[in-house]
Structure formats: structure tokens, C-alpha cells
């Protein structure tokens, strides 16, 4: 099959999934994620057919491409998305949220800490702007020396940042639900709810700008969209208009800064325009799967690349780029490029083991959600799982030591919230 035929077949698979989930509800996580992958699939066709893809990646025109990796990838994503069909406002026990003096005190302490953290990110975003987003991206994503640039020898400031990175990922989902359900049920003032949402939103935007990352900016939108999908149907008319305005402003901010970052990162190259670069960024993953990765892997790391804490260290990189270079030499494929969640696991474990791993994750998450109403304390893990699927277009984003630490933080905070909410009547 030609690459175009494969990509069209791939698009039809996700259109089928979207059609199935859209029959029940258009405002659901499963439907929105399906549409998301329909758009990514369509962009894959566009970048390939317009030559945007081939401006950067060589394509063997005489090669016959296989639909198999795309079918496997579709299975992985469909299996992961399926458990989320039960995640909806009416099936989550938001009434478990304790709106009392103790909770208010905890939230106020979080506000003080988050304001300090946001100011840190603001200073780093200003520094990135003065250095230049292109250079900042090289420092953070290529050289891997963002820590040295931002913190130098200030050990205390670095620890404060690391603590808040973990706290942000583990506690923010609960704060967002506290704020949004408080708005709907009128259990907290609107001004306080908007302040909590704004703190989370602007901290994430500033963090993305500090690293010169278009991808992180993109996930700012989806971080808000997750909650918007769940809560929007229960907003009053005034709140719906305000939330729609915020979403539109957020999209505008992300687009403007994505273009600015793209200009900065492409100022020394003549192969792409900033607009084409952004389109390829979101469209290259599916063409890459069949063109760069399927059938091209020389050796599989079998866990040592994605999960070194489980399977042992094969190599300790001196920089981010050095690590990519090592694993490219080891596997024979450019592991730096976007590869989809199946493609990443295929590089790691071969053709069939990823299907087993994904099936296990999906079944485990289904058991975790259970058949009854979803308890409030599970929301951080639900968001963690949603993020796994969302970023699955690029690869398996939960590997590595730092992601393990974040996952452990999510588990610990979730367990604390479980104990606290179960005993709220005694407080």
C-alpha cells in the first residue's frame, strides 16, 4: 500500500470510533478524544500530501507501507479510551468535596505556595524571553541544562521548584474540581473560584513559556478542556458565556506564542516556515509510525529506555540530546521524533507485547474506576490517565524517572484526599 492509502485507512478507523462515541454524547471525554485523533489523522494526510512532511523526512517512494502498525495503534488508543466512557459529571461523587473551614485553610495555604511558584515561573518566562525562545528550547530540550540556567547553585530554589512540580500535578486536579463544583453548587464565592482556576492556568502557561515549548502550551488548553468537558453542561448561561470567552482567549494566547516560538526556533533554517512547522508538529506522528519506525528497529531495549527504574540502566546520558543519540544508535531509529504511543512501545518491546501492556493498563484502570459512582479522590488519577491518552499521539509520556516521581506524588496525594474526604464528617 502507498503511504496515502495507509493514512486514509487510518483516518477512517478514528472516524468510526468518533461516530460510535458521538451517538451517545457529543460532550464526553471519549468523543472529544476520538475527534482529537481524527484531527491528528487528518493532519497526517495533509502534511504528507502537501510535501510538508517530505521537506523534513525522507520517504522511500518505492516502499510498500503496512496498515498493521496503524491497526495496532488504533487498538491501543481505543482500548485506553474505552474506560473513560463512565467519566462524566453525573457519575462522579463531587458531593464528597468537603467545603468546610479546614478545607478552606488548606486551599488558602496552597494559594500562598502557588503564588510564589507562579512568580518563580514568571521570572523564568521573562528570562526565556530575554534569552530567546529558540535558544531556551535548545538549553532545555537539547542540552538539558535548564536547571543550571534557572537555578545555578541555588539548591533551595531548585527544591522549591521540584516540590511544586509534583504538588501541581497531584493536587491541582482536586483544586480545579473544588473550584468548578463550588461555582455550580454556589458553595464558594465566584471570585475565589476564578482565582483558583487562574492560578492553575497562568502557572502552566508561564511554565511552558519558560521552556520555550509549543507542546506544553498546547497541553495548557487540554488541561482546561478536560474540566470544561465534564462541568460545562452544568454551568448556568452566564458561566457558559464566560467559560467560552476564556477558552477562546486561551486559544488565541497559545496560537500567538506558538507562532512566536516557531519563528524563534526556525530563524536559522530555510527548510520550513513557522506555519508549516506547527502543522507538521501535530501531523507527523502517524506518517512517522509507518515511515521511520515500523520494521526499522534494529534492537529493542526491552524496558531499559522507558523504564530504567524497573529494568535497569543501560546508559546514563550526559545531556538530553546525548541520550537521544545513544538510543538512536542502539535501536537504529530516531527516537527523538514523534511516534505515537504504540510506536514508542513498539520500539521498546516489539510488535505484540505493547498490545498486552496497553490491555493490562486499560483493564486495571477500568477496575480502578469500578462500577459505582467514581469517588472524588480518584480525579487526579483520572486526569493522569487522560493525559496518557492525550499525549499518546507523540509517544508513551509516562516513562522515565521524573514521571515516576510525579506518579508517586499523584498516588500519595490521592490517598491523603481519600482519607480526608472519608473522615470529613469528623472534622
From TrEMBL:
The keyword Transmembrane helix applies. This is Conserved domain protein. The keyword Transmembrane helix applies. Keywords: Membrane, Transmembrane, Transmembrane helix. It comes from the Bacteria. The chain crosses the membrane at residues 6-22, 29-47, 67-84, 105-127, 167-184, 193-211, 217-233, 245-266, 352-369, 376-396, 402-421.
Amino acid at each position: 500500500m502507498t503511504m496515502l492509502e495507509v493514512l486514509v485507512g487510518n483516518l477512517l478507523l478514528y472516524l468510526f470510533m468518533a461516530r460510535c462515541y458521538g451517538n451517545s454524547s457529543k460532550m464526553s471525554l471519549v468523543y472529544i478524544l476520538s475527534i482529537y485523533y481524527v484531527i491528528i489523522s487528518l493532519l497526517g494526510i495533509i502534511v504528507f500530501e502537501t510535501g510538508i512532511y517530505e521537506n523534513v523526512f525522507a520517504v522511500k517512494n518505492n516502499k510498500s507501507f503496512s496498515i498493521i502498525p496503524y491497526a495496532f495503534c488504533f487498538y491501543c488508543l481505543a482500548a485506553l479510551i474505552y474506560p473513560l466512557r463512565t467519566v462524566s459529571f453525573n457519575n462522579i461523587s463531587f458531593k464528597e468535596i468537603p467545603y468546610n473551614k479546614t478545607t478552606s485553610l488548606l486551599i488558602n495555604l496552597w494559594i500562598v505556595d502557588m503564588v510564589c511558584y507562579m512568580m518563580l515561573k514568571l521570572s523564568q518566562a521573562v528570562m526565556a524571553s530575554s534569552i530567546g525562545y529558540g535558544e531556551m528550547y535548545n538549553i532545555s530540550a537539547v542540552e538539558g541544562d535548564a536547571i543550571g540556567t534557572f537555578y545555578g547553585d541555588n539548591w533551595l530554589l531548585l527544591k522549591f521548584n521540584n516540590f511544586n512540580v509534583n504538588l501541581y500535578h497531584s493536587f491541582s486536579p482536586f483544586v480545579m474540581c473544588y473550584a468548578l463544583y463550588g461555582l455550580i453548587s454556589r458553595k464558594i464565592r465566584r471570585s475565589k473560584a476564578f482565582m483558583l482556576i487562574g492560578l492553575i492556568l497562568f502557572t502552566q502557561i508561564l511554565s511552558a513559556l519558560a521552556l520555550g515549548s509549543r507542546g506544553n502550551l498546547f497541553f495548557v488548553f487540554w488541561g482546561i478542556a478536560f474540566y470544561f468537558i465534564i462541568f460545562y453542561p452544568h454551568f448556568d448561561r452566564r458561566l457558559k458565556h464566560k467559560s467560552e470567552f476564556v477558552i477562546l482567549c486561551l486559544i488565541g494566547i497559545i496560537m500567538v506564542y506558538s507562532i512566536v516560538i516557531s519563528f524563534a526556533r526556525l530563524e536559522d533554517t530555510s527548510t520550513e516556515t513557522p506555519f508549516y512547522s506547527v502543522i507538521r508538529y501535530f501531523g507527523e506522528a502517524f506518517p512517522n509510525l509507518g515511515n521511520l519506525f515500523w520494521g526499522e528497529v534494529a534492537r529493542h531495549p526491552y524496558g531499559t529506555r522507558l523504564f530504567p527504574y524497573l529494568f535497569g540502566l543501560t546508559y546514563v546520558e550526559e545531556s538530553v540530546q546525548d541520550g537521544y543519540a545513544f538510543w538512536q544508535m542502539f535501536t537504529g531509529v530516531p527516537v527523538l521524533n514523534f511516534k505515537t504511543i504504540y510506536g514508542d512501545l513498539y520500539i521498546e518491546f516489539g510488535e505484540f507485547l505493547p498490545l498486552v501492556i496497553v490491555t493490562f493498563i486499560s483493564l486495571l484502570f477500568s477496575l480502578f474506576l469500578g462500577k459505582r459512582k467514581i469517588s472524588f479522590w480518584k480525579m487526579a488519577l483520572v486526569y493522569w490517565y487522560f493525559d496518557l491518552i492525550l499525549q499518546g499521539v507523540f509517544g508513551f509520556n509516562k516513562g522515565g524517572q521524573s514521571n515516576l516521581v510525579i506518579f508517586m506524588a499523584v498516588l500519595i496525594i490521592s490517598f491523603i484526599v481519600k482519607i480526608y474526604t472519608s473522615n470529613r464528617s469528623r472534622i
